[in-house]
Amino acid sequence: MRLIQFRLEGIYCVPGKFFIDPWRPVDMALITHGHADHARWGMKKYLCHHFTVPILKSRISPDIIVQGIGYNESIAINGVKVSFHPAGHIIGSAQIRLEYKGKVVVISGDYKLQNDGLSTPFESVKCHEYVSESTFGLPIYQWKSVDQQNEEMSNWVVQNQSYQKTSVFVGYSLGKAQRIMKAVEGTAPLYVHYSIHKLNQAYESVGIQLPKYEVLDFREDVKHVNQGIVIVPPALVDSNVIRKIPNMAYAICSGWMTVRGARRWRSADAGFAISDHADWNDLLDAIKQSEAEKVYVTHGQTAVFSKYLNEIGIESEEVKTEFGEEEDEAVYDKVEGSME
Amino acid sequence: MRAFATLVHALDSTNKTTQKMEAVHHFFKEADDKDKLWFLALFSGRRPKRAVSTTLLREWAKKISQIPEWLFLESYSSVGDLGETISLLLPEPQGYLDFSLAEWMDKINALAIYSDEEKKEFILHAWNNLPHQERFIFNKLLGGSFRLGISTKGLINAISSYYNLEASAVSHSIMGEWTVENSNFEQLIHGEYIDSNLSKPYPFCLAYPIEDVEATLENLADWQIEYKWDGIRGQVIKRNDEIFIWSRGEELVTEQFPEIVDEIKSWEGNFVLDGEILAINNGGILNFTALQKRLNRKVLSKKIMEEVPIGMFLYDILEFNHQDLRNEPMSLRREILENLVAENSLQNLKISSVIQVENLEELKEIREQARDINSEGLMLKHKNSIYHVGRKKGDWWKWKIDPLTIDAVLIYAQKGSGRRSSQYTDYTFAVRDGENLVTIAKAYSGLTDKEIQEVSRFVNKNAVEKFGPVRTVKPELVFEIAFEGIGWSTRHKAGVALRFPRILRWRKDKTVAEIDDLEEVKKLIR
């Protein structure tokens, strides 16, 4: 019997009779992390890491039936040994390990190997089969170190202040926004949009310390933010709301900003290539460290990445899923707003 | 090179004219004279010959980054620019080489006499000692086209405001044949080389599309009206028995049109003429596809010269016997032009005839029928107008005939380059050919950013073939395609070629069953 199957509703554990990150309503859903393309509404029961619980309640509904679990703790579901391991993507993000009759499969959701200082750092898990994303599965994507990224962002804020400008950062409200807050901490007063504040609360409720900030009410006059830092979700780019900010210089923070064309397309004042996904080298490292015999590539550069894995001697197959909206949205959907 | 890298980055980062201008001013403050000169040279297409082939650059880059050819191509198609792709694929630099733009250009120029092995050593060393942004610029400096994110006009305005000069004087000063080696930036922009240069053209005067026909033409007698032709705008210069032909792209095209040169040689006097270079046979203007066959050929065979004879319709005179006439009124310039033409024998050259009408209705009728003689509409020039630098509203208008349109379906999409490399912006469209679809046109523009995003998402979800840069998509989205002309073509599968196709609008109300049929499309050819 196969341990997992790719079904119309999502990734299915056959003996365990549950789904992982399903996109259609099912009875039992194990959730890798709280982004909207992985944690959807309509499941009878949810199982996720403790830190993801408040996120799901905040985004889906306070009334959902959800059980939390710690990293490296294991439980048995219909005879399948299930455990969650840090994926380093956002807080609470996990790689889900399934073990049944000696066979091990890991579904990694979204992950990154860089330590962003907020999420529990990625831990490699050995397995027979590995399910991996490939959002940035092209060798042109190579991230700078977190220290270097933080320094560049802080420098940009300081430079804006010297021109009497307000620094506006665009980043999705779960994960990226908190990273930006951490990166520019201490350079200027911090203001965030309400949607970010809501998720900040989820961070703080599980004991994660965020820099001091103020919630910005865009219905009021916002002139007092001048020369400070404002963080907004992608949906607000080009909106009337954002135009109220005085002397604004705005930066987009997304892995896609690596490419000059993408930066120019958005004609932002600055583009920082920071991402909560693994870059090319880290994708390969994660897969090699898992020692998996077979890799399923779920979303992103699936065709290219799985072809490359096969060429370097790692058996791989691309799988069609409905993941991978949120980073795409940051680039494509400035008008309609993101999934956030 | 840091100052130049900062400038390129700043120009990329904004689409506001004032901020672009500030960035150029900042560069002028920081850079030394030679760097400024190189900046101007690179911007105006005066780049040295490519010393290293792109094939070699690609080979070296693949080897260093240890990736196979196909993966290199996938990366390239995602980035949309070779120099940038290479720069992104290479590992982090190990050091920093601090040379100015001019120093880098000298080194690159010196490459020409190096062996391939020496070139490789130089380039690999540079790659390993420049941060990404400068590495990218270095690759661009090695050759190929380099778009700087500022228009010619924007740059000229930036120069003229920084140095407190007239914009028209600056654009005149920086045109023509100067080289970095023999010039000084300040002297160049102050126009100190102009007199010594016989080839120096004047900036072309351009027209805006007409906005309000009735109001503009209220006093019809004030206007000089001519046909508008779809050829190559050209400036013919004859000074001290030397002849130059400039195209609007500020390119010297003298050698491409020996018929014109021969005829001008026999004319008396010194002059600068403005006109349209066209394919003309027995006095009739040929379909635009004919002229295209003549252009950009390395060798002009006797056969092609007989097949596509070239002529020129003259419509203005900018200089006569070394006297600049551009500030004289159109009516006087026309008179001088007519006199000049009358004194000389004409074969391939013709004076553009002035259309005489009694009233606007008559004129409208003439415009409607313009396509019958392969004209693309009318030109309206105020009789008192001076010859402006570039585009200025009010004195010259173009009143083009309405474009032809067809409904076609999207079948292939490709990501754009440069600013648009993250989106599917380059489309190929098809019309019906019996039971099948046949490619009819490629188009790049005409959609809003929002629509481009919508189409991109459709392509992402409906791509049939995923490798390589081109995506084959389900034939479902219907667009109205506008174009200026249509001609027979042996190069295209459909047997026809469209002139300036572009997307007029997205016909969300139409299905693929309602697109046009090739046989109907062919009936539009004149």
Describe this entry's structure for a reader.
The complex is a heterodimer of chains A (340) and B (526). Chain A folds into 2 domains: 4-140 and 276-328, 4-Layer Sandwich (Metallo-beta-lactamase, Chain A), CATH 3.60.15; 146-272, 3-Layer(aba) Sandwich (Rossmann fold), CATH 3.40.50.10710. Chain A is built from 9 helices and 19 strands. Chain A has helices at 52-59, 146-162, 176-183, 194-205, 240-243, 260-266, 280-290, 302-311, 326-332; strands at residues 4-7, 10-13, 18-20, 28-30, 45-49, 66-69, 74-77, 80-86, 94-100, 103-107, 129-134, 166-170, 190-192, 214-215, 229-232, 248-253, 270-272, 294-300, 315-318. In chain A, the strands form 3 sheets. In chain A, strands 7-8-9-10-11-18-19 form a 7-stranded mixed sheet, covered by helices on one side. A 6-stranded mixed sheet of chain A has the order 1-2-3-4-5-6, covered by helices on one side. Mean pLDDT of chain A is 90; it is low at 326-340. With 526 residues, chain B is of the alpha+beta class. Chain B has 20 helices and 21 strands. In chain B, helix 1 packs antiparallel against helix 2, helix 5 crosses helix 6 (82-89) and helix 10 crosses helix 11. Chain B is globular, with a radius of gyration of 26 Å. The interface between A and B is medium-sized, with 31 and 37 residues.
